[in-house]
Description:
Number of helices: 11
Oligomer: single chain
Amino acid sequence: MTIDRLIGILAILLREERATAAGLAKRFEVSPRTIQRDVDRLCRAGIPLRTVRGAGGGISIMEGYAVEHTLLTDGERGAILAGLRSLDSVSGTGYYRQLMEKLPPSRQSAGDDCVTIDLSSWYGPALAPKLEALKAACAEHRVVNFTYCAPGRDSRRWVEPNKLLFRWSSWYLHGWCREREDFRLFKLNRMIELSILPEVFAPRPVLDPVTPAERVYPEQLKAEIRLSPAARWRLIDEYGVDSFSVQEDGFLLFRRGFPDKEELFRWVLSFQSQAELLEPYQLRQEFFSRLKEICRKYDR
């Protein structure tokens, strides 16, 4: 990208004071003529560059120009590095690492490593190529086709991709689903048999590319659950320290909405004997019936 290359050229000149057009062309994998056009752009932007021909010549920033202080502070540089490192953790290419190398060194480089954001997942190598393919599909406005694994049944989807999102500790694709005729979020881990099709689509207007959490996890029913004090750490981890109240006997009372009864049952069952579903009473009875069915399987 032109802007990346311009920033990279400026960073190199700040660091090395002088560079040749041929050397920059090789470094950025473009022609010397392209580098010369970039130099012209930087000059028009107010950066006083000087070009000297012949042996010992090259491109440099005019002496006395305090450009270093007009670019990035150490704090700003550290924030950019943290963001680039987070993207590099899931990238299947060296693109973001190359961008990090283009940033000028800071006067206090120790602070650059204070923040690390790892966006990779437990699914390892399978995530990086999927992310790169979908990122290209978003940029090129190409239709994608995949099988989506859902609780009810798997379905084949044709989607016009809009944006990749990292939310709720997972990666999602936001795009227009032709089957549902609406924008949808698709969890990347549940997308299999992915194909990038040759078909190009015209982007649709998007009012808000970030789907509200209430739409993805609607609270259709309210539940009341009694939990052992031993489950306190998990409630804090998942919902925060204010998500429950401590009763006189030391047990915890947890009230929250759930999308449906299946999600509620799975969540309560994950605590094993540490949780007891109190309300709604009808679902408590249904949950008890399911537990008896489980017991019968293990009682053979």
